[in-house]
Structure formats: structure tokens, C-alpha cells
Amino acid sequence: MSDESVHPADEVMCQCSGTKRGYIQSLYEQGMDVQAISRWTGALSGCGGCEWDIADFLKALDQQKVQADSQTDRDNSAG
Ligand code: FES
Fold it and tell me: CA 66 to CA 10: how far, in whole Å?
């Protein structure tokens, strides 16, 4: 089972702003941090109920990025 089926990109993560998971990921990949994503989308600026979900999601993306970077480092040093 892929992550996509567990956490679809079109899942709304912030009900107040209607911000979807895939859009948050896209902004993260463009280099935005949580404050920038909040300002850009309006997420986290309403009831705050999405705060932990979005924080956990960004933390998971950070971990994926660290793993990917270390894999790239290993690949580069191996050659
Ligand atoms: S659900 Fe995101 S601010 Fe309310």
C-alpha cells in the first residue's frame, strides 16, 4: 500500500482554509516553512485544529528529505 492511498494528496488538511495535503507538500518542496505556508494558504490561521496534523506532515517530509539527502551523499561518495 502506498502513502498516496493512505494520505491522498487531495485530502483537506485545514478545514478552515480548505488547504489540501498535496498543496502543502508542493509549497514545502518550494522551500516554504510552516509560517510561510500558513501565510500563503491561510492554513493554521483559523481555529488551529489542523496544527498538529500539518506539523506532523511537515516533520515527516523533513525526515524523508534528510533520508534522501543522506542517500545522495552516499551515492556521491561511493563513485
Ligand atoms: S482547520 Fe486549519 S485553522 Fe482551522
Answer: 25
The total domain count for the chain is 1
User: Cα separation of 33 and 58, whole Å?
Assistant: 9
Distance in angstroms (rounded) separating the CA atoms of residues 7 and 10: 8
Query: Whose Cα sits closest to atom 2 in ligand 1?
Result: 14
Single-letter amino acid code for the residue at 18: G
Of 44, 53, 58, the residue with max ligand 1 atoms within 8 A of its CB, to mutate for a pocket test, comes to: 44
pLDDT value at position 53?
96
- pTM of this structure: 0.85
How many angstroms separate the CA atoms of 3 and 37, rounded?
Answer: 22
Contact residues for 40 (Cβ-Cβ < 8 A; gap 6+): 27, 32
